[in-house]
Amino acid sequence: MLDKRFIDELRGRLTLSDIIGRTVKLTRAGREFRANCPFHGEKTPSFYVNNDKGFFHCFGCGAHGDVVSYRMRHDNITFMEAVESLAGEAGLEIPKPDPQSAQKFDEHQRLLQIMERVAKWFEAQLKHGQNGFALRYLKDRGLSDETISQFRLGYAPNNWDGLREALLAEGIKAQDLQTLGVLKQSAREDKSDKPYSFFRGRIIFPVSDARGRIIAFGGRHLDAAFAGQDLKEKPPKYINSAESPLFNKSAVLYGLARARAHVGPDKPLILVEGYMDVIALAQAGFTTAVAPLGTALTEDHMQLAWKIGAPEAPPLLCFDGDPAGQSAANRAIERLLPHFNAQRSVRVVFMPHGEDPDSLVRKQGADAVSALFAQALGVFDTLWQKELAQSPPTPEGRAALQARLETAIKQIGDPLLQQNYRQALRDRLFHLGRAASQPPANKTRFNPGNKGRNIPAGPPPRLQQPALVQERRIWQVLLLAVINHPFLLVQNLESFGMLHIPDPPLESLREALVQLMHQEHKDEALTSDDIKQFLSKRGLNDIVTNLMDDSIYRLYGFARPDSSADMVLEGWKDVWTRLQRKTVNIDKNKLLQEVKTEYSDDAADRLFSLNQQQYILDDTL
Fold first, then answer.
1. Which of the two ends of the chain, N or C, has the fewest CB atoms closer than 10 A to its terminal CB?
2. CATH code for position 116
3. 257 within 8 A of 214, measured Cβ to Cβ
4. Is residue 414 situated within a structural domain?
């Protein structure tokens, strides 16, 4: 966690209006500045910037914060990413915790600088006259000069040593270039000291991390680069950098650095298959498109997508409409089922047969793509249509359909979402049974591969978000963890004593636990059995028994009596921090409502204090 003094110095080095003024047109209003709010649409300015106090505030939507929170919200980045970005502008070096970490950080920065130089060399080759065919290829694919420049596309000439010699001349070591995967060791003994270019005769797609720093490359083979050569076999169309100290392909999404700035409640992340899909969609105005790199969609990819996306706008997963695309969609859904919950889901889009996003936008334009995205299916509908397509319209077929879907639903890790999916399944089976006993309806729903079978029209039942049940579960987890691991109560007695649980039975349990510590003067020798006996004497045994629920242990394994201390501490910290974040958010929202009707410096200061708490909690997670 960063020292508060460093954050204070960072704020002091930067002028808030200068930072905000780069993206918003500010007008002076006395000692403040005002503008149309960048976070919600408005015609009358209600967004104010106060340099003296170092905060901004919108009286329309309630947005409030300092220079760090503005950068986080505007660029859709994390607290640490915002701090790193602003520290660079302020000329400050972020404190490093220890010499070993400092050395690792410096080495990481050095390798990033080398990759940046390699990217510039590829870009220069694309502009070289003798490689004009490579530039023509990109233009023929419909890319503008601006798009080529924005995505920093380049070209790797069809030679073995051009890149090596150019960068060696700049003092870059061949070993570093091998480590980063742009040079490859020769198997020939007479060439062992001269590694060769990994990318040859290919369009180059620089791959960046979430902050836009180049960490790898992708290359698209061009036949024109090998004209006149007798190739024994055609090379693969696309290749990617091997994994390196900078690059883990299973945790990187191509285009994420550009896309994250545009993601919002009405702009979901769009996950497509390849480089050209991302670029073509971005050029057509779909600025939130990203793609995995030569690998199937992984859990790490989705965790990254969920982290930057808004829960009300689940990521769109795009697949081809042919059998291979449907199979890929099914595998992705099966892999992700254990990770879905009320806040984390996806929607699925199937392309028309024979098309991908790149070809569709070139042939039919952005409107056709928008219309297709509007037909995106939810996870339940995707599962339903997959299984329905292979179920005969008989009672036996419906029974098999139900069995397969129930098996899939059991894979969902969140029990509340499981419950809602089961209800949705019962509703859908009921309508399917009724439809089987009536004449076929005229309305059908699009289903790639369902061969024209009738499906009951109308939207699926809406899934309710049982927020109160979920919140009660968090309180149960905390109490159960304390009972099974008394050292948590000893270490957190003061903060635990200040809590108030809005559930009478659970609150009575919390009060008894605090009373135990104050009256009995227990220390670290307190055991779980001691706690249970104390609670039993006070008539709370039934409440304790109800807490011992296997479903809680399945979701929060750290609370188990046999969990290690390290596991308990890590789990407790995560749940406790999330609870604190929720409390801070509630306090902020209440205060924002007050500020909308009656603004005061005291209210602004309290908002600022809550924002600081939020920074610390966000940095903890």
1. N
2. 3.90.980.10
3. no
4. no
